Amino acid sequence: MARIAGVNIPSNKRVEIALTYIHGIGRTKALQLTEQLGIDRTRRVQDLTDQEVLQIREAIDAGHTVEGDLRRTVAMNIKRLMDLACYRGLRHRKGLPVRGQRTHTNARTRKGKAKPIAGKKK
C-alpha cells in the first residue's frame, strides 16, 4: 500500500482511480499526472516501482494543493465570507444553500432533517 500526501492509496486499484482517494485530486488531475510522468494509467498501484511512487509524490507536492492545506484554505475562505457578512457568508452562517438554489421544497442536505411545525387546530 503506497502512501502519498498522507493518504494510504489502495494497492489493488488502477493508478488513475487510486489517486482520486487524495482530497484535491479528481479524475482529470489524476489523468494529467499519469500522462505527465509517463505512467500507464491502467497499471495497478501494486505494480508501481518505488521510483514511480516517489515521482508521483514529488509531482503532487510540487504542483498541487491537496489534503490538509486544501481543507484549511477552503475553511479560511468560508470564514472570510462569514466575517465580511456578505450574502454568501450569511448563507453559510445560516446553513442554507449558497449558490442560489431554491429552499421552499428542496435543500434538505443543507437545512437538515425536516422540523415539524404545529399545524392549525380545527
From TrEMBL:
Annotated GO MF terms: rRNA binding; structural constituent of ribosome; tRNA binding
Gene Ontology cellular component list: cytosol; small ribosomal subunit
GO biological process, one term: translation
Keyword tags: Ribonucleoprotein, Ribosomal protein, RNA-binding, rRNA-binding, tRNA-binding
Stretches for region Disordered: 95-122
Assembly with partners or alone: Part of the 30S ribosomal subunit. Forms a loose heterodimer with protein S19. Forms two bridges to the 50S subunit in the 70S ribosome.
Functional summary from the UniProt entry: Located at the top of the head of the 30S subunit, it contacts several helices of the 16S rRNA. In the 70S ribosome it contacts the 23S rRNA (bridge B1a) and protein L5 of the 50S subunit (bridge B1b), connecting the 2 subunits; these bridges are implicated in subunit movement. Contacts the tRNAs in the A and P-sites.
Family label: Belongs to the universal ribosomal protein uS13 family.
Name of the protein described by the UniProt record: Small ribosomal subunit protein uS13
Organism of provenance: Sphingomonas prati
